[in-house]
Specification:
This protein is mainly α and 99 residues long. It has helices at 2-33, 42-62, 64-67, 71-98. The chain is built from four helices and no strands. The longest helix is centred in the N-terminal third of the chain and has 32 residues, at 2-33.
Length: 99
């Protein structure tokens, strides 16, 4: 039982890092495409973005009226949906294996 819970926590952390990476990379390349300089170097910006992407995504959602919807917002939402489908698929597969 402990091993199962540990595996789920590891999967959750991996999904969190992947979605944070998607958020950072989509925002980074969007800024490059419009010719805007990135404030932080990737060495500092990447770990900060991976840790705090939910708050940044929430800020993007709140300010969508004044700033518009950025591609990084849409891509990150799609990554979250894919991660949820992945978790649901894993739950269904493990439930079938227990039967």
């Amino acid at each position: 039982m402990v091993k199962k819970v540990f595996n789920w926590v590891i999967r959750l952390l991996i999904a969190y890092v992947i979605v944070g990476s998607v958020y950072y990379l989509s925002g980074y390349f969007y800024n490059l495409s419009i010719g805007k300089d990135n404030v932080f170097s990737p060495i500092l910006g990447y770990p900060l973005a991976v840790i705090g992407w939910p708050l940044s995504l929430y800020a993007d959602f709140i300010h969508r009226q004044s700033l518009g919807i950025k591609p990084s917002f849409v891509v990150t939402i799609l990554a979250i949906v894919l991660a949820l489908f992945w978790f649901l698929r894993r739950i269904i597969i493990e439930a079938k294996e227990l039967k």
